[in-house]
Design a protein that fits this description.
- With about 350 residues, the protein is an alpha/beta fold.
- It has 2 domains: about 20-230 and about 295-335, TIM Barrel, CATH 3.20.20.80; about 230-290, no CATH class.
- About 25% of the residues lie in helices and about 25% in strands.
- Strands 1-2-4-5-6-7-8-16 form an 8-stranded parallel β-barrel. Strands 10-9-15-12-11 form a 5-stranded antiparallel sheet.
- Helix 2 (about 105-120) packs across helix 3 (about 140-150), helix 3 (about 140-150) packs parallel to helix 4 (about 175-180) and helix 7 (about 295-305) crosses helix 8 (about 330-335).
- The protein is globular.
Length: about 350
């Protein structure tokens, strides 16, 4: 963890669908990361090979003014990937909604190019993952899209999907979608929208509640867990380049610390006199709020996932940090908090 963040952690608390049979073999536990953009700034990984990396390789966009959907394979597969036993190619749909099945051949064309790049780098590609924030009411359309896409993909490629927790409410069409996919990944963060509308990121992982819900589909699933942080000001403007150092080193701010339900650290900085951060002025009483993942938030979530059993195949952490990020946990910290240890020397664990 960044040195200042470690200090703050130490000091802060001194300051204040359709039911389907659950039959099938138990899954081998895997621990993985999403690697999201910023490839040119990936810190070198000196640890043992990871189980799995879900690599964002491209984006999809909506049809505009009579033009077809677009699919971009940028940024593609970088040469400096952390070593892993397998990789998945992730495509993100950049708007809320769901594209029509006619986008399928465009995705397949992009996959063909990426497949050749992966072969040159001798990477084991398990399949693709779709990251689409489909409205719950349109899950039937999502199932049609996956069905169409499978006709165009290489036969050995599996299809994974990220999943919003709202999809699993009673009466939704999530069972149709899961039947078409090979696995699904419920995301336990930003549950109320892009930023959740709250001063938290992580959603509580209740294994006793969610395990039966996910296992009833009889399909392999992983669980997405947050390991990143975020900062906003009182106007709910979110900063992508503001660090704890920028605010914590300014004596005009006082800090109050608290923990969320999931053990994330919430730091509220308030100005006690007029001051500036960068070019922006702040009046007394105004300031910033940082929300940060902690070893406790990670370990608690992983423990809850382990109790889901059945078809649960492990956890995915969002995300692998870029070199310039200061609010995302280091992979070494994440693995230690998760109780994983050395991924090269440990044996595969069965749930």
């Amino acid at each position: 963890m960044r040195p200042l963040l470690a200090c703050v952690l130490a000091l802060s608390f001194g300051i204040s669908g359709c039911a389907i049979s659950q039959s099938g073999p138990r899954q081998t536990w895997q621990t993985g990361f999403w690697l999201w953009e910023g490839y040119s700034a990936i810190p070198p990984w000196k640890g043992d090979p990871l189980d799995v990396i879900f690599l964002q390789v491209g984006s999809m966009g909506p049809r505009e003014r009579g033009q077809p959907y677009w699919v971009s394979a940028y940024p593609g597969i970088p040469a400096n990937l952390p070593p892993a036993r397998e990789y998945w190619l992730v495509f993100r749909y950049e708007q809320q909604g769901i594209p029509d099945p006619e986008i399928a051949p465009y995705v397949a064309d992009a996959v063909t190019d990426l497949r050749l790049s992966a072969q040159r780098q001798q990477l084991k590609i398990a399949g693709i993952q779709l990251d689409i924030d489909c409205p719950t009411a349109r899950l039937h359309d999502y199932a049609r899209l996956i069905h169409s896409l499978r006709e165009y993909l290489p036969g050995e490629y599996q299809i994974s999907i990220t999943a919003l927790l709202d999809w699993f409410r009673e009466g939704s069409g999530v069972g149709e979608v899961i039947r078409e996919a090979d696995e699904f990944v419920p995301q336990f963060y930003d549950g109320g929208g892009r930023y959740g509308g709250e001063s938290v990121i992580a959603s509580k992982v209740d294994g006793a509640r969610w395990g039966p819900i996910f296992n009833r589909f009889g399909k392999r699933f992983r669980v997405g867990i947050s390991t990143f942080g975020r900062v906003h000001n009182d106007a709910r403007y979110y900063f992508g380049d503001l660090s704890l150092l920028d605010v914590g080193s300014n004596s005009a701010f006082q800090v109050q610390a608290a923990r969320s339900e999931t053990n994330e650290l919430v730091l509220r900085y308030r100005a006690v006199r007029k001051t500036k951060v960068g070019y922006v002025g702040y009046e007394p009483g105004t300031g910033f709020e940082f929300v940060l993942a902690t070893p406790e938030s990670v370990s608690g979530a992983v423990d809850a996932v382990r109790h889901m059993g059945g078809q649960c195949a492990g956890v995915l952490f969002f995300r692998w940090p870029a070199a310039y990020e200061s609010l995302t946990m280091f992979p070494e910290e994440v693995l230690q908090a998760a109780g994983i240890g050395s991924s090269a020397t440990r044996k595969s664990q069965l749930l």
